[in-house]
Write a structure and sequence with these properties.
The protein is mainly alpha-helical and 109 residues long. It has a two-stranded antiparallel sheet. A two-stranded antiparallel ribbon has the order 3-4. Strand 1 and strand 2 form a beta hairpin. The longest helix has 23 residues. The relative contact order is 0.13.
Length: 109
């Protein structure tokens, strides 16, 4: 019984794996990409409404936006080079700095 379960689990994980174009590593996709994007949009909007977002008037917020735009341009250039532009097609890149004493950075699909 355990061996059968382990075999099925291994098969499911192998079928759900895909290669990440940037790192070349394999990842398990437990949710479809469309579901992940919708979940991230909802979580991001909730986060923004609960946080104090610093606007372009703030020099640090402007710096975060400038650096983020450079990262976005580099990612798009790389994806074009490896013929994977479909993966970032239609992305709405957005960079925000929030007032919080915690040093942290994160992103969502």
């Amino acid at each position: 019984m355990r061996k059968t379960f382990a075999t099925w689990l291994t098969l499911i994980l192998l079928i759900g794996c895909s290669t990440v174009p940037i790192s070349g590593r394999r990842q398990v996709n437990l949710y479809p990409e469309s579901t992940m994007i919708q979940m991230s949009v909802t979580a991001y909007q909730e986060f923004l409404t609960e946080s104090e977002v610093l606007g372009d008037y703030n020099t640090q917020a402007k710096m975060v936006e400038d650096v983020g735009n450079k990262i976005a341009a580099s990612v798009e250039e790389y994806m074009a080079e490896i013929n994977q532009m479909k993966r970032v097609e239609g992305f709405k890149w957005e960079f925000n700095l929030v007032e919080d004493p915690t040093v942290n950075a994160w992103c969502m699909p």
